[in-house]
Inverse folding.
């Protein structure tokens, strides 16, 4: 018998952790065999053939029939039970659906190749529109919907939570004026609004009109993102945001934390009114992973691993865009294939967006970005530019391990990054992910909205703020 296994975990040496004593041999070739003992004797064993880096087949290998024991079928079933208990997903190849988690982020070629000579990657431009679409053109087709999203958010924050619910035992008509003022603070400023724009453009690309539930989804996404900014500014002790004083500076850290919590609570209330359990699960997952990503960043202890960096990047930023795209596709009534394509698009675009953000922390100015730069190094964080620079200047590893804590560490790291290919490699890394996002979009039916999403993907890696 032979079944396909899609596995979620492997250690840094490529070994599959299937059973504590079950991995007897492996190789680094594209197809290798791992043996799992079903019990303490060696009468029956299973062979897993590993293909590339994600899929493998489980087949039964037995001794000659004369040596077989009568409970062979039971033994095989027991093996499958053990594999399942170790969180392995066993299914037929053609039945499987992609899982939108970090476990399925492929390691880009730019990380695998440790080259000091870097050729700039070309941005995929299938429509010959690179640089030809201005930012206001990207928003024009959904401008009225974006304005509606902003109005709805401001209206929601102005009334008591009970006014939005059919189940509130007590209708609180008003919210504290101070809390209203704080929670509206960033929404009344001119932000990128890229997340609701992605949701609305994708919604229009998948159906003729944007539905009310998709408008609500865009509101939820923007509120979750804004809440994360409020909390970020407290954690990072930031003083500015979008060219103005941050909420924690204008009020206090305690009030800012409560403001962020309030935004998340109100976003959850709007999410519940969409009345779609799949969407609720997706967006709840995004919120949980966002917090996990923030926690990874806060607890990082001088880690210089790209695997750690990409995981944190996905959790902190990529997951929200991934799950919002998946949710938009679900609400459009699209089939499973289109939902998965939309998910892949969101995942890769989200990763590219954050990688460029990390790049701008080295190359941008405070005036351009509307916030302080060189923040990551001052916070002790090792992002893509310095990780790539470490390939040329190994002494950076000591600075990373002590989180740039000694006097002169930040300046030395910036100097070495500038002398290295770190900036160019980081830009190439972002372009790799954007190209993957564009490839996903090309699998969708052609429409003006889809083409604008391609143009928006271009701006993600060409932006300067």
């Amino acid at each position: 018998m032979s079944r396909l296994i899609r596995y979620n975990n492997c250690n840094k040496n490529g070994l599959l952790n299937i059973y504590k004593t079950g991995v007897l041999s492996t190789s680094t070739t594209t197809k290798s065999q791992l043996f799992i003992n079903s019990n303490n004797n060696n009468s029956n064993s299973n062979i897993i053939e590993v293909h590339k880096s994600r899929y493998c087949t489980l087949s039964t290998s037995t001794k000659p029939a004369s040596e077989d024991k009568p409970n062979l079928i039971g033994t095989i079933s027991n093996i499958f039970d053990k594999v399942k208990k170790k969180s392995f997903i066993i299914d037929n190849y053609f039945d499987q659906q992609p899982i939108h988690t970090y476990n399925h982020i492929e390691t880009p070629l730019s990380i695998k190749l440790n080259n000091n000579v870097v050729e700039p990657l070309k941005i995929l431009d299938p429509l010959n529109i690179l640089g030809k679409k201005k930012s206001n053109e990207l928003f024009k087709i959904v401008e009225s919907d974006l304005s509606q999203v902003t109005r709805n958010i401001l209206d929601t924050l102005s009334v008591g939570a009970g006014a939005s619910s059919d189940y509130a035992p007590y209708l609180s008509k008003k919210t504290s004026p101070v809390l209203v003022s704080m929670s509206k603070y960033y929404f009344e400023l001119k932000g990128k609004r890229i997340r609701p724009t992605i949701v609305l453009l994708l919604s229009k690309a998948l159906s003729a009109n944007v539905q009310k539930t998709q408008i609500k989804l865009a509101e939820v996404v923007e509120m979750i993102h804004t809440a994360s900014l409020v909390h970020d500014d407290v954690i990072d002790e930031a003083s500015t945001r979008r060219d103005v004083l941050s909420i924690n500076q204008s009020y206090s850290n305690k009030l800012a934390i409560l403001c962020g919590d309030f935004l998340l609570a109100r976003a959850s209330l709007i999410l519940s009114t969409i009345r779609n359990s799949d969407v609720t699960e997706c967006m709840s997952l995004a919120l949980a992973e966002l917090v996990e990503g923030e926690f990874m960043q806060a607890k990082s202890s001088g880690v210089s691993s790209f695997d750690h960096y990409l995981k944190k990047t996905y959790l902190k930023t990529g997951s929200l865009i991934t799950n919002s795209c998946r949710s938009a596709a679900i609400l459009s009534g699209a089939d499973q294939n289109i939902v998965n394509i939309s998910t892949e698009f969101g995942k890769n675009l989200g990763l590219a967006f954050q990688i460029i953000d990390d790049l701008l922390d080295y190359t941008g100015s405070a005036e351009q970005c509307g916030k302080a730069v060189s923040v990551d190094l001052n916070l002790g964080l090792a992002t893509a530019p310095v990780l790539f620079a470490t390939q040329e200047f190994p002494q950076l590893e000591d600075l990373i391990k002590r989180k740039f804590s000694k006097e002169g560490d930040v300046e030395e790291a910036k100097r070495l990054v500038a002398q290295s290919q770190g900036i160019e490699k980081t830009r190439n890394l972002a372009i790799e992910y954007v190209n993957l996002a564009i490839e996903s979009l090309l699998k969708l039916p052609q429409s003006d909205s889809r083409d604008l999403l391609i143009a928006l993907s271009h701006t993600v890696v060409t932006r300067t703020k």
User: Anything to note?
Assistant: The first helix runs from residue 72 to 85. DSSP finds 19 helices and seven strands in the chain. Strands lie at 2-6, 31-37, 44-51, 55-62, 89-91, 240-241, 244-245.
